[in-house]
Amino acid sequence: MSFYRAPSPLEFSYIGMDQPPTSIMVNQFLSQGSGTIDKDKLTDALRQAADANPGIKLRLKGFWGWRYWDDQGAYPVVEEIDAPDWDGMSSEHCPRLGQYIDVRKDPLCQASIIYAKQDVYLLFRTHHAITDGRGTVHFLMDAFRIMRGEQPVGSASKLTEWDIAMREERPPRPVAEGDCLAVTPFPSRPHERGCRWQRFVWNGDKNKLTAKIMFALAQLAWENNGEGKVLIRIPADLRRYLKDDEGITVGNCSGALDFEVKPDSSLNQIRSQLVKAMRNKEDLSPFEEKQKIARWLPPSMFRNNPAMLHRTHEQRRYRMTAIITNLGDVDLTPFTLTTYQPKELFGVPIGLENRPVYVGAASQGNDTGIMVGIPKALADQAQLQQFCEALGEKLHSLK
């Protein structure tokens, strides 16, 4: 057993959110493609990639405030799943999503080769307590390099978002969370638990797409729920603050940009706001010194209280209105093999029931795949499809 690093305060909160039979804070990355993937070759490649990126092969040791990541965790595992009823466009009939991962015993990277209704999907799940989306993709690109006979890039740095934020000058919080509108118009069903998602293909103008999604969601929130506060969060990669000699880290390095959209905000003003926020380092603003107490707090402190969650959905007032990610133009080449050709790459929303909507976008060529995740308390699958259509139409109306 070997000490690797201490969890960051954010990672302690992600560990605390685990509640069997579900792990909420899991990165879930999918490649949709055609052809074949050899299970044994993928397993071997993931093992070699884990050796090159030791931050992926961790396990939790110790207790209470003395917990730490040990680097002798289990290697990634691969399974094959037949899912003839899953069409790849929604969470309906999708296997493995949200399945519990024990951070003390299980492999913290798990892969599934899914034979769905039409295509072959590769589902990669990594626990968010050890890595984020960017770290996961770096690790997976190494695995595909190995399968093509290339050398992995690897990573040696152990830095996390906390290490970066604590050494940088952090601006004050630009907004106050809370009392925010939902986006959907449908009556709440506060007793329902869990989240669902739906994706659709949008072929409009990708210019200023992040700002367009923010503007469209704000307009829909006011149209569907009346006057009120609209607060939108955009996760941001803090690796831009790493020094050249610090190398690559697969540890969590995600900050966040938070914006309040006003009724008189124009599309161009929102775009300017995004640029200004990055320039002012507002992606560091969510981190405060006092958060280090997280290591001493019991897991229950980080979980949704059922009564409070029920009341939140009844009142339809949330910490924020939406979370948005836009991966931009995604290159399929790093995930291409002679036997397997990817058609689309996308991530599945993390199932936070106290956030009213998550929207993710990733473009390939002229098409943009848009993923919408939502608590089941706010929409059934048919209603979510209806909302996706409304969002698509709203985006098409913006120039």
Helices and strands in order:
Layout: E1 3-5, H1 9-17, E2 26-35, H2 39-52, E3 59-61, E4 68-70, E5 77-82, E6 109-115, E7 120-127, H3 133-147, H4 161-167, E8 195-202, H5 209-225, E9 231-237, E10 254-260, H6 267-279, H7 306-315, E11 322-329, E12 340-348, E13 358-364, E14 367-375, H8 381-396
Parallel strand pairs: 5-6, 9-11, 11-13
Antiparallel strand pairs: 1-4, 2-7, 2-12, 3-4, 6-7, 8-14, 9-10, 13-14
Helix pairs in contact: 2-3, 5-6, 5-8
Kindly describe this structure.
With 399 residues, the protein is of the alpha+beta class. The protein has one domain. It has 8 helices and 14 strands. The strands form 3 sheets. The chain has a 6-stranded mixed beta sheet, with helices on one face. α2 (39-52) crosses α3, α5 (209-225) crosses α6 and α5 packs across α8 (381-396). The longest helix has 17 residues, at 209-225. It is globular.
Mean pLDDT: 96
Order of strands, main sheet, comes to 8-14-13-11-9-10
Ends: how far apart? 57 Å
What are the low-pLDDT stretches, counting only 5+ consecutive residues below 50? none
Summarize the structure.
The chain has 399 residues and is an alpha+beta fold. The chain has helices spanning 9-17, 39-52, 133-147, 161-167, 209-225, 267-279, 306-315, 381-396, and strands at residues 3-5, 26-35, 59-61, 68-70, 77-82, 109-115, 120-127, 195-202, 231-237, 254-260, 322-329, 340-348, 358-364, 367-375. The strands form three sheets. It has a six-stranded mixed sheet with strand order 8-14-13-11-9-10, with helices on one face.
Index terms:
399 residues, alpha+beta, six-stranded mixed sheet, five-stranded mixed sheet
